[in-house]
Specification:
This protein has about 350 residues and is α/β, with parallel strands linked by helices. The chain is built from eleven helices and six strands. A six-stranded mixed beta sheet has the order 5-4-1-2-3-6, with helices on both faces. The protein is globular.
Length: about 350
Amino acid sequence: MHIFIDESGSFTFTPKPHAWSTICAVVILDEAMEAAENALKDFKAENGVAPTDELKLGKGVDEMSYFRLLVRFERLNCTLYGLATNAHLNTPEAVSDHKSSSADALVKYIDKMVHQCAREGIKSVSDQVRRLSNQLYIQFTCQIMLMHSVVSQAVNYYAQYSPESLAAFVWRVDQKEPSRKTKYEEVFENLSPGYLQTMSLDDPMPRVQGFDYSHMVRYDVPEGEQPTYLKDDYNIEVNLDDVLDIQKLIREDIQFVNSKDDFGVQLADLLAGGLKRCLRREFKDNLRAAAFLGRLMINRGRGKHPVLLLTLGQEDVLDQSTVKLINMMKRQQRRMIKK
C-alpha cells in the first residue's frame, strides 16, 4: 500500500482561537493508484488548473468539485487518517514543558542501563529533543503519532479487504525544501526509530482472530529474535510476543519528496487542507464537508474521535460548533470490522 503524508497550517502558537492545523495521511492501494491520479487530474481540470500544476485548496476552488473528489476516493477504498491540533492552546510555555517531559521520559531508566554506550546514546537523543525548536518538536510529535495511528488502523482494516496490500508499505512525505535536506528531515531520521519502537511496545497493534495477516509476516519479529535491549540494557522484563517491527515497516521505504512530482502527496495536501478548513469552519457547507471527509475515516474504537486531537498545553473543551462537525465525521466513518 502507498501512504502519502502532508500537513496544513503553521502549528505555532497564535492568540487567535480555533487556529486548527492538521497533518493527514491517505492510503491508496496499488490497484487504485491510476484511478486516484485520474481523479486528481479531473479535479484540476474542473478548477482550471493544468495537470502538471499543483492545486491548493482555497477560495478559488469549487466546493462541490472538492466534494466530488472525496466521493471518488471513497469509491476507490482510499482511507484518510488525520491529526488536528489547535495552535491557540499550544503556548510556548506549554510546548516547552511537553518537550522537557518527553526528554525526561527518554532517560527515565538510564540508571538501570547496563552498557555505557547505550546510556550515552539515549542521553544524546534526549538532548536532541531538548534542543528542538518548538515548531520542529510539534511537527515531529504530530507526524510520529499520525504514522503510528496509520499502522494500527490501516493494517486491521485492509487485512479484511485487501490482505495482499500488507506485503509492502510505501511512505511518501512532503518535502518542504526540495533543494536540500531540511532540519526536520534530519530530526526525523535521528529520533524516529526509538520513538516508533517505544510507541509500538507501549501501545501494540491489536490483531483480530480471523483476519489475514499472512502477507506481512516479514514485518513480524521472528520467534527467538525479539529485541533484548530492554532486558540487557534496562533490566526490564517485557512480553515481546507478536511484536511488529514498526521501524522496518515505516523506514524500509520512506522518502521525503517534492509534491510537485508526486500526485499522492498533492492528494494528501488537499485532504489536510480540507480537514483544516472544515475545523476552522471555512467551507460554505462545513457539515457536508465533515460528512464527506468522515466517509474516508475508520472507526478508532468506542469513545474515540475519528480524528486524533492533540494539545500540548491546557486541555480545552471543544466548542459546540466543532463538536457538531466531529460528530458528523463520527456518524459517517467506516466500520473497522467488516460485517
